[in-house]
């Protein structure tokens, strides 16, 4: 065990001394988009490498760049720069992309739908090497809710008229009405973002007391009585 470790350390030491005793070049310096897959870690003096752009990038110069390992252990300079292929951003999405009209290779667009909408399609798309997107943008479709149940002794009056269909969609609303003289415990309902609708209200008798203390006025009813739901009084 300890013998093996000593041996390994010795080997590393030997390797290190051999390498450092003779000039070599390390992996050439590269910038984004240059194909690294063909590069070795160590090169002999005089060895040459042709740098190329990897898939999805285009060279800034037409000829591939040959560089060589010099006697000082440095590489001759290269002026190869690789620029990424661009994917056009779909027009409707450009305002969301802060006005940009294209995005570089490997960009990812993430999509979300607003509350109350469900996504049909893929939630992301990436810019491929050939300048196309991996997925089309998704559609956002309004959530469906069931039809609201009417209150006992009452009905639902949809805002949308004429109302047809077996469900409602996010954003649609309705009023609850009760058979007079009853009043609903609440008057409005709508299809909510989570796809649910409210329970129907209860219809009950309500009465309001005779109004008092009207500033600068008097009440002129022939009969002073309690008022029922939706009764109005008028100030003259
Ligand atoms: C897109 O989503 C991926 C994974 O869900 C995440 O890693 C990435 O940061 C997101 N990009 C943006 C621009 O939000
Ligand atoms: C995107 O969809 C994938 C499955 O298609 C899912 O695993 C992932 O969580 C989703 N990401 C977001 C941000 O909704
Ligand atoms: C782009 O590349 C993708 C994936 O490799 C392929 O499916 C698609 O057909 C290519 N599109 C064009 C226009 O070449």
UniProtKB/TrEMBL annotation:
Disulfide bonds join 113-140. SUPFAM superfamilies: Complement control module/SCR domain. SMART domains: CCP (SM00032). Residues 1-21 form the signal peptide. Gene3D superfamilies: Complement Module, domain 1. Keywords: Disulfide bond, Glycoprotein, Repeat, Signal, Sushi. Pfam families: Sushi (PF00084). The keyword Repeat applies. Residues 23-84, 85-142 form the Sushi domain. This is Sushi domain-containing protein. It comes from Mugilogobius chulae.
